[in-house]
Amino acid sequence: MTAGTPRNSDLGDSRDEIPPGTLYLLILKTLAVRGKLHGYEIADNIQRSTDDILQVEEGSLYPALQRMLIKGWVTAEWGITSGNRRARYYTLTTAGRKQLRLEVSQFERVMGAITRVIQTV
Amino acid sequence: MSLPGEWLRRLQMLFHRRQFRSDLEEEMRLHMELRQEQQIEIGLSPEAAFSAAHRKFGNTTRIQENSYMTWGWEWLESFAQDIAYGTRAMLRSPALTVVALVSLALGIGANTAIFSLLDAVMLRSLPVREPQQLILLGHGEDNGNSDDRGQTDLYSYPFYRQLQQRNAVFSYTAAVFSVLNAVHGTVEGRTEAEPMNVQLVSGTYFPTLGVQAPIGRLLNDADDNSEGDHPVAVVSQAWWKRSLAKDPAVLDRKLKIGSTIFSIVGVAPAEFFGTEVGKAPDIWIPLSMAQAVPPGWKGYKDNFSEALYLMGRLKPGVTTAQATSNVNLLYQQIIRSFPDANLDQRNLEKLSKARVPLTPMANGLSSLRREFSEPLQILMGVVALVLLIACANIANLLLARSTTRARELAVRQALGARRTRIIRQLLTESLLLALVGGALGVALASVANRLLLRMVSGGLDTIPLDVSLNTRLLLFTLAVTIATALVFGTVPAFRSTRLELTSTLKAGRSSQGTGGKNPLARALVVSQVSLSLVLLVGAGLFLHSLVNLNNVDLGFNKENVLRLQIDSTSAGYSGDTDSVRELNLYHQIEDRVSSLPGVKAASFSLFTFHEGSWNNNVIVPGMNVDQNIDVKHNIISDGYFATMQIPLIAGRNFGPQDTATSQHVAIISERMAKTMFPSGSPIGHHYYIHDVSPENERVVVGVVKDVKFGDLTEAPETLDYYPHTQYAWDLGDFEVRYAGSFTAISTTVQQAIHSIDRNLPIADVTTLDEQIARSITNQRLVSQLSAFFGLLAVFLSCIGIYGLMSYVVSSRTQEIGIRMALGAARFDTGWLVMREIVLLVTIGIVIGVPITLMGTRLVANMLYGFQGTDLASLASAVILLLVVAVFAGYFPARRASRVDPMVALRYE
């Protein structure tokens, strides 16, 4: 499972790459918390909730969303934004929630392991 | 993650991909605009915000493509593009495409058709339970001598019963009558008799084969345990359909055959055609009823009426070797134990030498196989060679084409096309060609195998044989051609995509694989020429052989003779029980037909030509001659020699003086006269057929010229003729020598016969000439088809030569231009091309000749009338090839000689 490889931004801001494999987790979690969101809102939300540390590349976001549509983790439908524009809103499905739990536990296991390594040094 | 759901979503996306693209685009545009607004909010100018947003977003097209590719359909799209492009490329050079497709279609079609027939005749297993356990006693030959002890192909009914009880190796033993009884029977309730092929079998026949009845029951041993008591019949699915229109109440129907009413007890499965390939019985009747089925075999209780094939199903674990020793032991014991066995010195000697070979019967019996297995194998070889030539052609055409496209490919590469992408495209194009050709081939094969079956049937009713396409071979042939197309379509693709782009672009058409450096294409042309030579010489040999067969001296005049068969036994006549009545019928028919206008002579006979034989050993008192010579007998009416125009050499013809009560007489053939009566005239001499007893004594009254009797290639036979007045027998053959139109005579003759008895079934109305032609159906099949394929091979090779040379000329235009500018004559430049063609063809011929000579030896059996290599065939094949090759090369050569030096040089 490869989450599109985030490329180094050329804006020069102090921004960190999203760790490989965690893009799905971030999108799933964001949708779980916020409900219905369109693409820009997902990216914006991730950026805000990480205090601008993690920035989602559009180049990774859209292919990732397509993959999640194929997997059936999310569904998409057209709606109207607060600014009265047409936007495609993504919603989490039951399969998506299940996947989120899976990804979270996987991430925690890996994180715990890494933390243990760091602390022993 | 349910997989089906995932694929469903992917498929939905595939069908709405236009919608998908516009959705994605709109979604990303919104994203960009929102980003831009956000930048303005934090204080950037609209222009700066716009460019920042764009920078941040990156290449939108690329993101779209990536998103799109996520769904995994891009291969399909590019495949569709390649197909469309390939189709356009094929249509741009229609001549090349047509040639390639025709080559493929003929290669695939011919191979599949011939193999399907070969498979049906030789390879396919019987549709019965575990056919590999079935064993036949003997080789399945059906012409034994009725006097010989120790023959091992046909057996008597009592022998079958003895073997069945005493053997230790078969779980089942069954007997089959060695010929089909072609009778005319009537479905009860109808008035018209219809032809029916009856197979007499032992009651154990169906249990041995393990065949089950879909309707009713099949025969069992109880139907066969007492003679004459079981008038039951099993009908074939085909007959049930044809004659009873699939009547569901088939088990209530009855058949009248001869004078017996048979009850239908069951219908055999659809796929079951009996045990002889190419003979599909309509009706199976137990051997216990043999006497009731015309012509009424009386051998049910006769220890030495040997007319049955015997087969057994091996017990599990028993080997063929064990079975052979058990059967041979019993064979000697059973035959010697029959009380009426004639165990004289000669018979004992023969018997002690007799060995019963056991033959696997998994593929069934077949006289068709004996006749056609060799021709079909030869034809299979021929079409395999044609396929090779066709493949070489496709290879050549694709090579030539890809080389001329080198520049196009270079341009595409320069514009950024990846190498793999170009190779994939060329692959797709070759595949397209191969598949379209393959589809045409399949279509051709399905027509061709019906045509082929009709040719094999030789003018008679189509042989009942399932020749549906053989899928395995079809797939194999398709694989071969597709592989050829792929290999030869892409080898150049690899080569041309590796090239130095700049040099190709600069040098234009002259750089790639110029004329001088294309050994592969040349090798292909050389091999095409060699193979064509083999096929042409083969065709020449077979045609020569066929001409020889047609010119064979028959000993009788085959022109203007109508012959037909009258099934008098089915109409209730019998030479056995009322010979006077049957003889009267024959006389009446003969008289009435003879007096018809246009009829010169008419006669009855037991045989005419190629109809089997009835033979015995004869004993000539006082002559020291080989007693083991088979003499073949014919029974004839007085007009036979006149009708057939067989010249009488000595003595007299049969006449009214030869009656049932007068001295039994015979007319013998020249060969018999020389063999049996080497000294002096045979006229007036006596001899005995079978054994020395008064009723078997004959006196020679005449000698006639030798005739061909069994087939066209036989040596003169020892034949004798008996008058039908002295030998009561149901003579089936009726011959009429006529003048004028066959159709008119045929109608009036049949009307005349029916005016005497309107119930007489008449069958197989044809000419004697046609009957003789039928006997060489296999030779005709081979020579016609090999001639067709030989010419086809030459045609394909010419196209190969033409294609190669055109290509050579166009790629050497520059060189030719320079030569001409330097003063070469037009003739020389033309010769430059012709010289190459002649060289290639000569090499091809030099390689081909030894192959041809070896091949000739393989088919020696099939040739008639000349020994070893036929120089005429070889020479004419070589000349034909040279002429045609030069013709094919003429056009490119002329083009070369017309190159304008200025144009050629300026082009660069």
Outline the structure in words:
The complex is a heterodimer of chains A (121) and B (908). The relative contact order of chain A is 0.16. Chain A has a three-stranded antiparallel β-sheet with strand order 1-3-2. Chain A is built from four helices and three strands, in the order H-E-H-H-E-E-H. Chain A is of the alpha+beta class. With 908 residues, chain B is an alpha+beta fold. Chain B folds into four domains: 3-72, no CATH class; 131-362, no CATH class; 368-550 and 777-907, no CATH class; 568-760, no CATH class. Chain B has 27 helices and 22 strands. A six-stranded mixed barrel of chain B has the order 3-4-9-6-8-7. The interface between A and B is medium-sized, with 29 and 31 residues.
Summarize this structure as a short list of keywords or feature phrases:
heterodimer, A: alpha+beta, Arc Repressor Mutant, subunit A, 3-stranded antiparallel beta sheet, 4 helices, disordered N terminus, B: 908 residues, alpha+beta, 4 domains, 6-stranded mixed β-barrel, 6-stranded mixed barrel, 22 strands
Topology:
The complex is a heterodimer of chains A (121) and B (908).
Chain A: H1 23-34, E1 37-38, H2 39-49, H3 58-71, E2 74-80, E3 86-92, H4 94-120
Antiparallel strand pairs in A: 1-3, 2-3
Chain B: H1 3-15, H2 17-41, H3 46-57, H4 60-70, H5 74-92, H6 94-123, E1 134-137, H7 157-166, E2 170-177, E3 181-187, E4 194-201, H8 205-209, E5 215-216, E6 232-235, H9 237-244, E7 254-257, E8 260-267, E9 283-286, E10 308-314, H10 320-337, H11 345-353, E11 358-360, H12 367-404, H13 406-414, H14 419-457, H15 471-497, H16 501-507, H17 519-550, E12 561-566, H18 579-594, E13 599-605, E14 615-619, E15 630-636, H19 640-644, E16 648-651, E17 665-669, H20 670-676, E18 686-689, E19 697-704, E20 719-723, E21 733-738, H21 742-756, E22 762-767, H22 768-775, H23 777-811, H24 813-821, H25 826-858, H26 871-897, H27 901-907
Parallel strand pairs in B: 4-9, 6-8, 15-20, 17-19
Antiparallel strand pairs in B: 1-10, 1-11, 2-10, 3-4, 3-7, 5-8, 6-9, 7-8, 12-21, 12-22, 13-21, 14-15, 14-18, 16-19, 17-20, 18-19
Helix pairs in contact in B: 2-3, 5-14, 6-12, 6-14, 6-15, 7-10, 12-15, 12-17, 12-23, 13-16, 14-15, 17-23, 17-25, 17-26, 18-21, 23-26, 24-27, 25-26
